[in-house]
Amino acid sequence: PAASYARDFVEVVQSLVKFWQEGGRTKVVTNAGGLDPQACAAAVRGELAKAGLAHLKVAVVSGDDVLARVRGGGPEFSHLETRAPVSEIADRLVTANAYLGADAIVAALQAGAHIVITGRVADPSLTVGPCCAHFGWRPDDYDRLAGATVAGHLLECGTQACGGFSTDWLEVPGHHDIGFPIAEVSADGSCVLTKPTGTGGAVTVQNVKEQLLYEIGDPGNYLSPDVTVSFLTLRVESAGPDRVRISGATGRPPPATYKVSATYRHGYKAHGMLTVFGDQAVLKARRAGEGILQRLREAGCVYRETLVECLGTGASVGGVVRRVPEEQFIETVLRISVAADTAEPVKRFTREIAPLVTCGPQGVTGYASGRPKVMPVFGYWPCLIARDVVSAKWELT
Question: Is the pTM of this model over 0.90?
């Protein structure tokens, strides 16, 4: 209870206290509210009060919780990829949250909020909201909204636009301390992407282009709650060291639906790992893992899924890459995974890893971490919901 939000955001607020005490005016918009934005706001207000900053206004955006409606079922909530009906998992649903747009954020900022805390909001909308509030854009200023959406897309998730996990990551300067991207957005929706002075990484045309392709699907129809964007008209050009200008985004009306991210209880799982060193390490490790599963099956354990992997052989990409014959490996990490509908067979599995130290092949090591943990599995159920049945709300406190 009251813990279902990104609790490290409170530490972010603590780090900004001195800045605000000295007259800093920067506002913050965040989706750190997670499943409980009200609890997040209460914790933030507590920190502000302790610092003598109770005059700063905190707004909460909610309305994204659509669990009751999705749980009620209906063909509109079928799985986006498999088209399976939601009735298959309705009784196991835990959460269902619609990706809201920027409207409530805009209203909260226009009402004087210094900090806006949301639940589920589409990542680019966290940028679109402040832009609309600042420039006074209309909801149908689609090209401008498209530009701000592109800026938000470049900012989202982390340091990728500054070189994080880029193709040329090995050549990225200061890779140990890559700076986070900053978007300087203009009134026409274009932006210049940069990063803080003195931080690692590099804002280059290549890095920006790679991030533009991140999680977009159809580049001519990038769907967001605020606007449908075409990336096909974008211009990306250098504007100086660690400065890249992005312009030319074109927009159309947004879709008639919101995407919903729903989760449901889907049993239990556990993963056990050991290192095997020595001659024929991969053969030994694989036989040891298969032996554990055979012993458990013979004991009556039933699993929904099992997997034996020998890491180092290309196992993490499902056999796509195997550059070295397995018999030439002198060491490997054996990872055994199981999943079941109930917890008991998974618990039984966790007791089978340590015995390999003495009943398995010679060369077993890396067992000091103890028994694996039994973890609940939450399945992911993406679906759509009509916009007109979702009501975004905001409250100023």
Answer: yes
